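Sequence in, structure out. Go.
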Amino acid sequence: MQQFYTYIALDLANQRASEAREARFAAEFAAGRPKRPSLIRRSLAEGLAAISRGSASAARRLDAVAADDLGRSLTPSD
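Output:
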C-alpha cells in the first residue's frame, strides 16, 4: 500500500512542476519580451566579437613571429 502512495506523491509532484512550468511560460509571454535581442545589445555583441577576432589575429601573428625567432635561434650558425 505504501508504494501506491509513493506513486501518487510522484504523480502529484510532476503535475505541480508541469503547472509551475506552464505558469512561468505564460508569465514570460505576457511580459511581452521581444523575440530577439535589442538593437543595442546586438550591436554591442557584434562589436565585442570583432574586437575579440582582431585580438586573436594579432596574437596569432605574434606567435608566428616568436616561432620564427625561436627557430632562427635554434639553428646552428656557421
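Check: The chain is about 85% helix and 0% strand. Residues 53 and 59 are 10 Å apart (CA to CA).
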